[in-house]
Amino acid sequence: MLMGRLIKQANNTINQRMNAFAQQYRLTGTQMSVINFLDHFPGNTCAQREIEREFDIKRSTTTVLLQRMEKKGLVTRQTSPTNQQSKLVSLTSSGEKLIPIVNDYIEQSEIRLIDGLDGDSIKKIKQFLREVSERLNG
């Protein structure tokens, strides 16, 4: 089987499992990923551009994603006080309550993903995936 197809199948499986889990919280897997990402910033706040870069998605796609999260009361978006063209995205208290659930799910998924692999294999797979992404983007 082609390498690209195997990567796509693995990605689809990961996304399907995450979406199935997220559904019980009326979320999507991508929304869970955004909550996890924001948790790594002071005050659970970052520039919208950081989300665009992290998930390699267009500005318009990010805007729609964040608008849906705003409607659910998970995030707020405000104009940056230092750059009028930049939006700051922050988790609300409702979004923050989901952090332990989201992080636990992601941690358990990572454990299942690497179960049975030795440290050297994990390192090589991560390096390979980084290189694939760089080659295809560059």
UniProtKB/TrEMBL annotation:
Gene3D superfamilies xref list = Winged helix-like DNA-binding domain superfamily/Winged helix DNA-binding domain
Q: Which residues form the signal peptide?
A: none
- Occurrences of domain HTH marR-type (ranges): 1-134
What the entry lists under Pfam families is as follows:
MarR_2 (PF12802)
- Supply the InterPro entries for this chain: HTH_MarR-typ, WH-like_DNA-bd_sf, WH_DNA-bd_sf
At the top level, the lineage of the source is: Bacteria
Sorted alphabetically, the keyword list is: DNA-binding, Transcription, Transcription regulation
Recorded hits in PANTHER family, A to Z, give:
TRANSCRIPTIONAL REGULATOR, MARR, TRANSCRIPTIONAL REPRESSOR OF EMRAB OPERON
Q: What is this protein called?
A: Transcriptional regulator
